[in-house]
Amino acid sequence: MRTALVIGTGLIGTSAALALAGRGVRVYLRDHDPDQARTAAALGAGLDQEPDGPVDLALVAVPPAHVAATLAAAIEGGLARAYLDVASVKGGPRRELRALGCDLSTYLGTHPMAGRERSGPLAATADLFEGRPWVLTPTRDTDTEVLNLALELVALCRAVPVVMDAEDHDRAVALVSHTPQLVSSLVAARLRNADETAVRLCGQGVRDVTRIAASDPRMWLEILSANPGPVADVLDALAADLDETVRALRALQAGKEGAAELEDVLRRGNDGRARVPGKHGAAPAVYETVTVLIGDQPGELARIFADAGRAGVNIEDVRIEHATGQQAGLIQLMVDPAVAGQLAGTLAERGWPVRR
Known about the structure:
Strand content: 15-25%
Number of helices: 13
CATH superfamily of the largest domain: NAD(P)-binding Rossmann-like Domain
Number of strands: 11
Helix content: 40-55%
CATH class of the largest domain: Alpha Beta
Radius of gyration: 24 Å
Low-confidence stretches: none
Oligomer: single chain
CATH architecture of the largest domain: 3-Layer(aba) Sandwich
Largest sheet: 7 strands, mixed
């Protein structure tokens, strides 16, 4: 791949352009908002001008509702040898393109499973896709050269290719992406009019659950509108569980039996959480947590990581729980259980307040 045209310079389009440009591909940028394309170009993502002739790859990174029309115009204009999109829904655009009579041999629908709560070119980074799954949905009509260019794009962005059927993809993202977004927003909405005293009690649990509720509502309305059926199917099943949970809680409130139903839903949650891939996509590992009180001053994180390194311990994961109203917090260091005692001992020797 020597040349590429990125149509749509938001978070995903600009991040892909940055990755390609950083690896020697000549990238051209196009956006319905010229200022956004100029911003992406200023970041080093490419040139905000039209290519002289057909490019190797045209990457369409526009909202789902505009994907098919944008792709159809690009294909009709002969802008590239291969056409890809990065929309979060795959079945709809392909059906629309087929209805428009487009040649689908040069098109391949893709979806990088990466993103941030922020949007736009200023939120883009060249490493956004690194180590992340990038779904490819080829069909029997897909030209081999197009598939090879798609695989090259994924490799240049340092992502991990995953081949799926388009409809299977849409059902999968409804479960692991679209429904979690709605559930996060529904929980966060309970906080909107909550008493200030209650809100001040928010801990890491509610922060984790509501993190993605900060996402752009307009963007998510477009995504959900493109995949309503599969999302509604997941929510139907979730609603049934919620109804059962409410009945169990009301029974307990009335002094009746309900604990077994609650335990069932909690244990099923344990089972589901255990299936979420762990570090580097491997099977989930069980870590032990070493918790340390840490001050909110420059250099504290670097110091504790350096001390962990001196102990010869690899930190597998890390979380920080900030203390309300205090310039301090708890840092949770997740490590192999076999070395947890070694880490706790070394940190304590170096003056850290360790809590296990």
